[in-house]
């Protein structure tokens, strides 16, 4: 077993390309080392490595990670050193990291990073897996199976501790009290207290595990879903309202919460409910049958109410999507609303949509309250019948008082476990409207990744040959046999009335739409392949929260600052920015509303 490294000089550091090739080998990338080396030399090695990992279905990012937090990093990973070299961490052994270097593997003691680690690590988040909604979420959950198994083990231990409490009560009441056994009483009370404290500590530990698990899973899921969403074809995204997309996004979170919370708890509760039955049958067989019958009755009522709730939930999801979409549109276009003097009309329309949404929600809550009262009353009736029946048995000497108390505790735990299972099933039903929209998003085939082109300028002309296009079989033709050619450096003016197809042609050149017949080429490439070297400037530009420089970086796809400054000088943007109070660091108003349309472009 290798000894942990203790000093920075002993670290198995690697050079840039050497480190990236070693990481590719550790990850099992399919491309041969020679090809990877050639591609890494095309541009900045760190940025090029991110692109290569993206192509392999990973979500890489350079992250600021403190040395004490490296234990939470997914491995293998790269750690940046202050001298520009890298460490390749491939695993863990106790509290030490396993590093792979030119001479094999060694262990890294945490104190060895002092003064050497720069603070940046490569965070490799797994991409969104293939398959349906539940399959994708399930695979992401299993990616953290160690944490999941820890949560399951702790939850199971909590359930087992729940079995001990009734037994403590039975022995205390039936043996310690009648016999006046002070020593037994002290032991039982101490044991009961210890079990309670241990159960509290276990519950806290479970919450810690679960919190880390949920936060990590949220990061994986939400980032993966957003990447999938952004890569969907433009016509599909344009056909959906903002509310529908938000509802679909919420569906993934709902599936994650159900799978990691309710479903897991229900399965564990169902497993321990069998043990409760065994202990109950040992104490009071007839009462056990009564508990099973009443619990099944409560479960059946819960499922019937759940079916009704599911129908109401589906209607509310649709109403909520319409209300949210209109609210976003009204807030985004508030200038248009005020200019038209339509504030009262816009408010009245949104209020009507909100009223429908809230009515369905209120109706659903009423169903829950009424059914909950009835089913809760049935549970109380079960408890009272058991106490009367068991009390009679205790008075006639057929059962001891401690056994009766233990039985009622087991019965309550059994009913809670079984009804918890049925409640989890109801939650799955109620989430189905959200999940259905999410499943529809997953069924859409994303656009293929953009190829990385070496040339910064596209050679060749823009060519449109025999172009036929319409927005759907039921829509009229926008173009029928259109052909044109624009030479490099040339200009082509298109004139026509509104609806003539000018914007549609630009969107075809930008790769947003695909011709039904004919072809569109930008140099030797199809528009979708040339996106990394072209930009579509729409008539109405949507700017984002942040500074002028933040928007330039975002809308240029992360171009280097020197290229942004060069473009700003050519277009005259630098002269406008010079008039702003903080220059390129000036924070824009929401959507850039403090700029004119031309300034936003």
Distance between the termini: 62 Å
Please compute the radius of gyration using only Cα atoms: 32 Å
Largest sheet at a glance?
7 strands, mixed
* Helix-strand category: alpha+beta
Summarize the structure in words.
- This protein has a seven-stranded mixed sheet with strand order 1-6-5-4-3-7-2.
- The two termini are about 60 Å apart.
- It is built from 17 helices and ten strands.
- By secondary structure, the protein is of the alpha+beta class.
- About 60% of the residues lie in helices and about 10% in strands.
- Strand 5 (about 95-100) and strand 6 form a beta hairpin.
- Mean pLDDT is about 75; it is low at about 1-5.
- It has helices at about 15-25, 35-40, 45-55, 135-145, 145-180, 180-230, 235-240, 240-285, 285-330, 335-340, 345-395, 400-445, 500-510, 550-555, 560-570, 575, 595-600; strands at about 5, 60-65, 75-80, 85-95, 95-100, 105-110, 115-125, 460-470, 480-485, 515-520.
């Amino acid at each position: 077993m290798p000894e942990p490294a203790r000093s920075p000089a002993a670290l198995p550091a690697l050079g840039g390309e050497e480190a990236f090739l070693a990481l590719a080998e550790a990850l099992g990338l399919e491309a041969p080392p020679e090809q990877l080396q050639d591609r890494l030399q095309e541009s900045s090695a760190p940025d090029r490595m991110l692109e290569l990992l993206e192509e392999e279905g990973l979500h890489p990012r350079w992250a600021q990670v403190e040395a004490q937090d490296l234990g939470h990093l997914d491995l293998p990973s790269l750690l940046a050193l202050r001298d520009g070299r890298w460490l390749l961490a491939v695993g863990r052994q106790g509290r030490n990291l396993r590093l792979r270097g030119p001479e094999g593997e060694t262990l890294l003691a945490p104190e060895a990073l002092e003064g050497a680690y720069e603070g940046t690590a490569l965070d490799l988040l797994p991409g969104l897996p293939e398959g349906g909604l539940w399959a994708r979420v399930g695979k992401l959950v299993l990616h953290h199976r160690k944490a999941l198994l820890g949560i399951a083990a702790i939850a199971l231990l909590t359930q087992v501790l729940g079995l001990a409490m009734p037994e403590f009560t039975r022995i205390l009441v039936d043996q310690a009290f009648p016999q006046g056994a002070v020593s037994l009483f002290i032991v039982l009370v101490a044991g009961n207290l210890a079990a309670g404290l241990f159960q509290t500590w276990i519950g806290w530990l479970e919450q810690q595990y679960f919190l880390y698990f949920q936060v990590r899973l949220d990061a994986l899921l939400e980032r993966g879903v957003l990447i999938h969403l952004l890569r969907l074809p433009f016509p599909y995204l344009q056909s959906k309202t903002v509310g529908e997309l938000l509802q679909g996004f919420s569906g993934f979170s709902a599936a994650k919460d159900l799978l990691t919370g309710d479903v897991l708890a229900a399965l564990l509760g169902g497993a321990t409910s069998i043990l409760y039955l065994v202990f109950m049958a040992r104490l009071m067989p007839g009462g056990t049958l009564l508990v099973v019958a009443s619990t099944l009755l409560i479960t059946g009522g819960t499922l019937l109410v759940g079916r009704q709730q599911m129908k109401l939930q589906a209607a509310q999801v649709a109403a909520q999507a319409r209300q949210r979409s209109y609210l976003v549109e009204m807030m985004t276009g508030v200038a248009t609303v005020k200019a038209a003097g339509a504030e009262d009309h816009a408010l009245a329309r949104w209020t009507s949509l909100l009223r429908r949404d809230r009515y369905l929600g209120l109706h659903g809550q009423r169903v829950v309250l009424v059914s909950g009262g009835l089913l809760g009353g049935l549970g109380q009736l079960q408890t009272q019948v058991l106490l009367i029946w068991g009390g009679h048995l205790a008075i006639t000497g057929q059962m001891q008082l401690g056994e009766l108390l233990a039985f009622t505790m087991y019965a309550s735990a059994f009913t809670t476990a079984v009804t918890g299972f049925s409640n989890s099933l109801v939650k799955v039903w109620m989430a189905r409207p959200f999940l259905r929209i999410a499943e529809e998003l997953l069924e859409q085939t994303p656009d293929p990744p953009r190829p990385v082109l070496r040339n910064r300028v596209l050679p060749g002309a823009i060519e449109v040959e025999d172009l036929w296009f319409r927005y759907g079989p039921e829509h009229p033709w926008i173009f029928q046999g259109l052909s044109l050619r624009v030479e490099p450096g040339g200009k082509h003016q298109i004139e026509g009335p509104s609806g003539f197809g000018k914007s549609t042609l630009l969107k075809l050149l930008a790769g947003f739409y695909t011709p039904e017949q004919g072809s569109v080429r930008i140099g030797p490439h199809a528009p979708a392949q040339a996106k990394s070297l072209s930009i579509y400037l729409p008539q109405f530009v949507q700017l984002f929260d942040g500074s002028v420089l933040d928007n330039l970086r975002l809308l240029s796809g992360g171009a280097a600052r020197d290229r942004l400054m060069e473009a700003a000088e050519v277009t005259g943007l630098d002269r406008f920015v010079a008039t702003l109070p903080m220059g390129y660091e000036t924070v824009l108003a929401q959507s850039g509303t403090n700029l004119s349309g031309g300034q936003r472009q």
